[in-house]
Amino acid sequence: MSNATVEKAKTYYDSNDADNFYFNVWGGEDIHVGIYLRKGESIFEASRRTVETMAARLDGFPASSRVVDLGAGYGGSARYLAREKGFHVTCLNLSAVQNERNRKMNEEQDLADQIDVVDGNFEELPFADNSFNIAWTQDAILHSADRERVFAEVDRVLKPGGVMVMTDPMMKEGADQSVLQPVFDRIHLASMGSVEKYAAYAQELGWTVEPMEERTKDLVTHYSRVLEELESRTEELSRHCSVEYIERMKKGLRHWINAGQNDALFWGILMYRKPE
User: Is there a contact between 17 and 245 (Cβ–Cβ < 8 Å)?
Assistant: First the structure.
């Protein structure tokens, strides 16, 4: 990220408003899009199902595998991978506030010896070449102003034969820009990634593009569920977050929902493999 982009993201996620919102509404473990099977399902359950679905793509990797989680948030995915897969996970995240919560929960769940939490951003990974078997990232790369560089950095730190498994809210190529613009304004960037762009970055690096799982409807469902929570719990949440923040969040969520309903967005599980 540019220095300005990094500082803007860091300032936002380190704020009391954002920390209290994500911790209280998402349940403080997973702060990404969920996969929903039932109407009214909790955000926590659906978000954890995304982790489980992605982790199933890694069944061929032994417990000795090392994972880097890019934009790890509160570390819920890392704890799942450490606990259920036996992996050693390095969380890379730019928010000091989220990282502190992450470290505390790792200690509380007796997983601190399997999880490292590192302050940093994913355009300048502070790791040696060929350090990891798996790169994992959920709904984070959209915040980068140079997503191709993120892919190049992942390629550098991945061992031969390693994989990158990810989700990200993406735009559909050829989508109505007037529908997307409010979303771009929300994330303070001029564009989003797309399936085609990410595949091109991967292929340029010589990676194999693995089959993807398209689940765009869950993106709309997820943001709709978050909006429902905000609207039903506004009075309660106003004790943790400013009213101004809550209202801005409601407006932003409606932009995401509108873009998804108007066929301008794509969301799903993508996976790429670095050659041996």
Answer: yes
**Segment 211-257, tens digit of pLDDT:** 999 999 999 999 999 999 889 988 888 888 898 989 999 999 999 99
**Using one digit for the tens of pLDDT, what is the confidence trace for 35-85?**
999 988 999 999 999 999 999 999 999 999 999 999 999 999 999 999 999
In this prediction the pTM is 0.93
Contact criterion met (CB below 8 Å) for 60 and 66 = no
